[in-house]
Amino acid sequence: MTPTPASPRFRAVADHAVQVEFAETLSDDAHAAVLALDLALASDPPRGMREAVPAYVSLLVDFDPLETDHRAVESSLRRLIQAGATVNRQPAERVVEVCYDAPLAPDLDAVAQRTGLDREAVIAAHLAGRYHVYMYGFAPGYAYLAGVPPALRLNRKPAPVRGVVAGSVLIAGPQCLVSTLTMPTGWWIIGRSPTPILLDDPARPFLFDVGDRVIFRRITRAAFELARKEGADD
């Protein structure tokens, strides 16, 4: 049976988790169901739940197998879904500054060539995107943003590039993210941001919450360097 927001699929994962799948491909309805269940779990977690991990169209519930089991957790999840939980919080709007100057945007010309746009048109298209945080993954603070305009959607590079610095603004397909660590990536690097994503706050370790809207704001190289210096001085 194909999962839907009204009739999700449940999967046992190892001996300590249950995954709820609301769809097989990305859709607004499926992700809304993920967010609604995540919020419901925050206020009414099943016994033994250790963590809920939302993704694009699914949610993973990790539990303590010494306290509960797959059947009990699935029963709790079905109850919450059948209760008709809805997203009742307004998503926050987060502003991320980005500089598109050549030294900080090594792939901008390549993106322009592949999309048939010039540099400024690529930048304008990126700034015009409607971005929402769909999930975290891969590395601490790696927030996957959906909303890259169709004109900029490119497949990943054939091979990853090593040593891509933190703060790089990356795109691939319909997704965008701001890297938080120096590491390899096969995504296209179109700018760099001085906006802190990893926060020195145990209660709020990352700038974004899943479901938040993200707006990119263009800054000059001078403003980028000043923001980076101020951040280093804090």
Mean pLDDT value = 90
CATH homologous superfamily classification of the largest domain: Cyclophilin-like
- CATH hierarchy, class of the largest domain: Mainly Beta
Terminal-residue CA separation: 54 Å
User: What portion of residues is helical?
Assistant: 25-40%
Please state roughly what percent of the residues sit in beta strands, choosing from under 5%, 5-15%, 15-25%, 25-35%, 35-45% or over 45%: 25-35%
Keywords: ATP-binding, Hydrolase, Kinase, Nucleotide-binding, Transferase
GO molecular function, one term: kinase activity
Domain Carboxyltransferase: 8-208
Organism: Fuscovulum blasticum DSM 2131
Task: Give a verbal description of the structure.
Helix content is 26%, strand content 28%. With 234 residues, the chain is of the alpha+beta class. It folds into 2 domains: 9-82, Gyrase A, domain 2; 93-233, Cyclophilin. The chain has a 7-stranded mixed beta sheet, with helices on one face. A 4-stranded antiparallel beta sheet has the order 1-2-4-3, with helices on one face. A hairpin with a 3-residue loop joins strand 3 (49-54) and strand 4. The radius of gyration is 20 Å and the shape is elongated. It comes from Fuscovulum blasticum DSM 2131. This is Kinase.
